[in-house]
Amino acid sequence: MAERMVGKQAPDFTMEAVLADKSFGKVSLEEIKGQDKWTVLFFYPMDFTFVCPTEITAMSDRYDEFEDLDAEVIGVSTDTIHTHLAWINTDRTQNGLGELKYPLAADTNHKVAKDYGVLIEEEGIALRGLFIIDPEGELKYQTVFDNNIGRDVDETLRVLQALQTGGLCPANWRPGQATL
């Protein structure tokens, strides 16, 4: 039986990653919490696929908006940092990522994908999962869906802003509107 995650402390993680400057480093939830920032953690199935670059680049193109909301974005797959770097170094016109403004993390041992409930064990890849974690480490939002469908960056930003109001946001709430 699946266990509820929203409203609980998010599973901690530290992963190797390709950082925005294309260097190798690490990303960790503990470090982001220490900066008093929100975390937008999203999983995607694998590098060099067709849907993934559309959403990864869309998130990067809108990264400044996440930054304005004191949020760090981290993309994760079970690929290696070397595969991530090769994909980042591939031009967008060639199904690559080009420049990214946030890190891509490598969950090569599949632990983080498993901890977040998105691992397809028989394939060794992750489902498309999106998790928003507040600065105290509480998981506030999660969505997991089929790998054939890319995420909507507008919706991710809307949900982040709604969570940050601390209020009750009705259906179809938009930033700037009153809460209940």
From TrEMBL:
Domain Thioredoxin: 4-165
Pfam families: AhpC-TSA (PF00578)
Alphabetic keyword roster: Antioxidant, Disulfide bond, Oxidoreductase, Peroxidase, Redox-active center
UniProt entry tagged with the keyword Mitochondrion: no
InterPro entries according to UniProt: AhpC/TSA, Peroxiredoxin, Peroxiredoxin_AhpC-typ, Thioredoxin-like_sf, Thioredoxin_domain
Gene3D superfamilies: Glutaredoxin
Family listed: Belongs to the peroxiredoxin family. AhpC/Prx1 subfamily.
Protein name listed in UniProt: Thioredoxin
Organism per entry: Lysinibacillus contaminans
